[in-house]
Amino acid sequence: MHLTVEKLLRYGYVKPDEMDEVCSMAIVRNPYSRMVSIYMYNRFGSKESFTHFVKSWYDLMIHYRTKRECEEYYTPCHCLPQFEFTHVAGEQIVQSVVKQEELKFLKTKEGAEEVIKKDSSVADLPAPVRDALLGMPHTNKRKTDKKWWDYYTQETLDLTYELYHDDFHVFEYDAVLTQRPDLKSPLRKVPPTKSKRQSMLRNSSLLASDEKLKRKASIKRVSMLSHNKQVLSDRTLKVLQEEFEEDCKKVDRHRLSNLSERSETSMSTSTN
After folding, report:
1. Which residues contact 142 (CB under 8 A, 6 or more apart)?
2. Low-confidence ranges of the chain (pLDDT < 50)
3. What residues contact 170, with CB distance under 8 A and at least 6 apart?
4. So what's the pLDDT on residue 257?
5. Which one, of 187, 194, 27, lies nearest residue 94 by Cα?
6. CB-side exposure of 172: number of CA atoms within 13 Å?
7. What angle do CA 54, 62, 147 make, to 5 degrees?
8. Which pLDDT score, from 0 to 100, does residue 37 have?
């Protein structure tokens, strides 16, 4: 699915009640390994280096970096941070989030039963979702001549973290590339900030009843805002124009009133 959850609601592919009731799920991954995967998929042939690609990717994301622009025309979906597909306005809308690194626990039924006892992103999955993922093959895995962490330099590590630092926070990934002790933590250049986005929920159906009501209200609010966004954008220029014209009239009336008062004052002064 290449649509963000906000677009699913805005385009009407999913209704608010459906989003609230269905077992929706998203699979996320470590942003560092994701960048290498993006590179392998989008590079201009094997001759393009990882460093060149990351710098080009950084430039390509200028509209997102400066304006948080998510429309495909400005920011290709593969560029977007992962939280854009699970959150809207800081709230997690997708019911369950699973870390790709922990799907290995679902290779066998016995493994799935064992992992329920452990602390992982697959432990709290609704049974239908867990059963659907059980034994799912990894069919599009690409063969590379080195480990994904070996692609990084200090520069590309810092750029990747700058682009996707919210993903590290929301999905609770370590910003330090532990496999590469020779590289310094990017946190020295981009200090962590307290994100306004809700941290990852493994399964929102396990929330307390009052929290469920908040989530349902958030979905409806997001849907209404998303649905009205296009209507608002179509009306914005007209409304602004009307407001501008009305303001101009008010200014003109105010000026005429001041001129009239000054004129009367001047006539009174001359008469005296």
Report:
1. 37, 40
2. 232, 234, 236-237, 240
3. 82, 83, 86, 87, 195, 197, 198, 199, 200
4. 66
5. 27
6. 11
7. 20
8. 93
**Are 183 and 157 spatial neighbours (Cβ–Cβ below 8 Å)?**
yes
Q: What is the DSSP string of 44-106?
A: SSTTS-HHHHHHHHHHHTHHHHHH----TTTS-GGGS-GGGGTEETTEE-SSEEEEGGGGGGG
pLDDT score at 192 = 57
Of 94, 82, 95, 85, residue with least CA distance to 203: 95
Res 268: pLDDT: 58
Q: What is the pTM of this model?
A: 0.73
Cα–Cα distances in Å, from 48 out to 55, 127, 154? Answer: 11, 43, 18
Helix, strand or coil, per DSSP, at residue 22: coil
Residue 51: half-sphere exposure toward Cβ, Cα within 13 Å: 5
Helix (H) or strand (E) holding 28: strand 25-28
Q: Are 182 and 210 in contact (CB under 8 A)?
A: no
Query: Which alpha helices (DSSP H) does the chain contain, by range?
Result: 5-10, 16-21, 31-42, 50-60, 62-67, 109-115, 127-133, 154-170, 209-271
Q: List residues bridging with 26 in a β-sheet.
A: 97
Taking CA atoms, 177 is separated from 150, 171, 222, in Å, by: 10, 16, 35
> Which residues are CB-contacts of 13 (< 8 A; sequence separation ≥ 6)?
3, 7
Q: Compute the distance between CA of residue 155 and CA of residue 267 in angstroms, rounded to an integer.
A: 76
Q: How big is the chain, counted in residues?
A: 272
